[in-house]
Amino acid sequence: MALGIRAARETARKSGRQLLVLPGDDEADLLQAFDLAARGVLDGLILFPTTKLVEQRALKVSESGRTVVATNLPRRTRLPVVELDLRSVGRLAASHLWSLGHRSVMTAGPSSGGEDARFSSFVAEWTRLGGTVTPHLTGRGTAEDGLRAGRAVAAEVGRRGVTAVFAFTDDFAVGVIAGLADAGLDVPGDVSVIGCDNAPLGQFLRPALTTIDPDNAGLMDQAVRLVVELLDGGPTRRRRHKIAATLTVRDSTRPVC
After folding, report:
1. What's the confidence (pLDDT) of residue 97?
2. Which residues, including other chains, have CB under 8 Å from residue 191's CB and lie 6 or more apart?
């Protein structure tokens, strides 16, 4: 997300506007920023996913005439939202693995919130291509949960002929790779693994992690542009603006031999 914040600051600088990007992890700071916006000190606010209380306060600031844009807010809201198209995540992962010749795959990761959209879109695309998905492995999304999942995947390699895993977070993917290694399996020689988030750590793993990039820089750039457009009197009918994910291919996936 740091890359996204840098992109937002650069776009704001070029626009000549005073914009504040709020990380959303300190409610007191957020409420203070709303006070500044209400008094006209700030031109616009960009919110990361946040609590219902902060969202309600943001709505009041918006209704007072100030411009507020939210990012990746999962619930319905009257605020304009710029968000990752979560369904593009699953489609990209499925298309990549299918193009490499994989036909027996497993999905692994959290089974709540946005991750559900990643799962459902993966399954929908995989089914459309003609494949079937073996049972999903769940967890909280941590590397530790991924480690346990990797060991479970190892058992399915012999039982079901699994050749690939789509992990819903890069942290989970790291654990899956470790669990497979503990079982004596090579990535990507025996099992290909693809993660999601494009976390910085992924490029330094061995093998370097193939992943889905949520394009945080593009999302934040679009959020700033939307704020500027609204400040300049632009149209407000379209309330949700979606940013497509992209595929970053590294070394943890390869064609089936």
Report:
1. 98
2. 153, 157, 162, 163, 164, 165, 180, 185
CATH architecture, domain 86-213? 3-Layer(aba) Sandwich (3.40)
Pairing state between β 192-196 and 164-167: parallel
CA distances from residue 29 to 3, 42, 64, 133 in whole angstroms, order as listed: 22, 14, 20, 45
155 vs 15: which has the higher pLDDT? 155
Residue 192 main-chain phi, psi, to 5 deg: -85, 145
| C-alpha atoms less than 13 angstroms from C-alpha of 74 in its C-beta half-sphere | 9
Domain boundaries, the chain: 2-84+215-244, 86-213
The pLDDT value recorded for residue 238 is 65
pLDDT above 90 (res 174): yes
Angle at 21 between CA 246 and CA 75, to 5 degrees: 65
Q: Which residue has the higher pLDDT, 226 or 45?
A: 226
pLDDT number for residue 112: 57
Is there a contact between 113 and 138 (Cβ–Cβ < 8 Å)?
A: no
Task: Check if 2-84+215-244 and 86-213 are the same fold.
Answer: yes
pTM greater than 0.85 (yes/no): yes
Q: Please tell me the CATH code under which domain 2-84+215-244 is placed.
A: 3.40.50.2300
Q: Tokens 């920023």 label which residue?
A: 33
